[in-house]
Amino acid sequence: MVDAKLQSVLSSLAQPAKDLEAQSPGQRAPDARYVKLNTNENPFPLPTMVWRSAISALERQYLYPEDDNIGLREAAANAYGLSKDHVIAGNGSSELLGLIYRAFLGPGDSIAMMSPGFSFNRKLAVLQSAKFLEVLWSDSHSIPIDQLLFGPAKDAKFILLANPNNPTGTFAPIADIERLVAQSDRLVVLDEAYVDFAPDNGLRLVRRHPNLLLLRTLSKSYAAAGIRVGFGLGHPELIGRLRNIQNVFNMNVIAHAVGVSILSHRAAYEENHRHIRHERERVAAALRQFGFRVAPSHTNFLLARVPNGQDGRWWHAALEREGILVAVFPDDGLDHCIRISIGTNEQMDSFLAAVAAISERLKRGG
Q: What's the 3-state SS for 15-70?
């Protein structure tokens, strides 16, 4: 029972967060025997030079990080062909999403987001007392430009979409993205968390269109999910407004050092990316042999519709009993699907062996 004084204090405070639950980062593995394929982590170790930069950064642990993330922003600007005034660095791109909502949304305003998409955005809208408008991807996963510009979402303060998209793994042509941005008189936020696994990217659009804000992260393709480094790229006026409300010393010295090193050694990750693309196609082909319908993916994961009209949650539970963790999205209209992160060759062999064992039991009526 809540203490009466505490209840009085809580009732006097702002209410948007009252009924929200903590954001789940994905089911944790009970122990090391489990194969964790549910949160799209890149399982490979950091290159030696990047790892050494993290160790060296510990020698500066008694100092505050550099002011305004200048060195990290400069490294990103050099890597992406921009000026540092076009760049904001964040504690993962999730921090930058929070800044965007705080900077550009007020109570009663609305945001339009392509759905299914990153569910954390619903929570961010609630915290700003804003309306969250979901626009469904078309069956071909093309961008419904008319719906975003002239439909119920026409009054949204900004439009948010991910390309490639999570959890579907699909990719919309950059020409379609540019048509949307060019025709819109509102801010368009383009989340490119998985773009290093895709055939193209929207970086060249940043200088062309002042209403585009592009998000990048080092979590997925650069195997640094635990370091927490993300970037926002856009017109200096947009970036300046975000930096004005950002927490001081929002990133630690290890994140700074690792981020700079990764951006300076991106070529060292090319084999990593090739492996994931190869494993992605190998696993997709194998799943189709077991009767799964697998959507084409341009990410480090696969979205697979399970066989025979079964529920994705049944397969989630069955795989967990085999020591494999995958993700499900029943709240996003994907009841019959599972999402599988692409890991090492050994991890994916274990996953496919588990699928084979479950499929065999189903054939026998077990």
A: CCCCCCCCCCCCCCCCCCCCEECCCCCCCCCCCHHHHHHHHHHHHHCCCCCCHHHH
CA-CA distance, 67 to 58, in Å (whole number)?
A: 18
Binned average pLDDT, 10 residues per bin, the chain of 366 residues: 64 59 57 86 90 88 88 96 97 94 91 84 86 80 85 89 93 95 95 96 96 96 94 97 93 94 94 95 98 95 93 96 94 89 97 97 81
Question: How many angstroms separate the CA atoms of 340 and 325, rounded?
Answer: 8
The tokens describing 142, both together, are 């093309």
pTM over 0.85: yes
Give the pLDDT of residue 9.
Answer: 67
The confidence score (pLDDT) of residue 102 equals 93
Do the Cβ atoms of 72 and 230 come closer than 8 Å? no
Give per-residue pLDDT as tens, 40-68.
999 998 888 888 998 888 888 888 888 89
SS3 249: coil
φ, ψ dihedrals at 185, nearest 5°:
-100, 20
Model pLDDT for residues 275-301, shown as the tens digit of each residue: 999 999 999 999 999 999 998 999 999
First to last CA, the chain: 46
Q: What is the pLDDT of residue 16?
A: 60
Measured CA to CA, the distance from residue 290 to residue 21 in angstroms comes to 37
Helices 312-321 and 345-363, interaxial angle, to 10°?
110
CA angle, 118 then 121 then 127, to 5°: 160
Q: Are the beta carbons of 330 and 313 closer than 8 angstroms? A: yes
Amino acid at 151: G
**Helical spans, DSSP H, in the chain:** 4-12, 48-57, 70-80, 92-104, 120-127, 145-150, 174-183, 205-208, 236-244, 253-264, 270-289, 312-321, 345-363
Q: Classify burial at 106, counting beta carbons within 10 Å of its beta carbon; exposed 0-12, middle 13-18, buried 19 or more.
A: exposed
Query: How far is 129 from 17, CA to CA, in rounded Å?
Result: 10
Closest C-alpha to 210, from 185, 232, 177, 229: 185
- Residue 234 is encoded by which pair of tokens? 């856009």
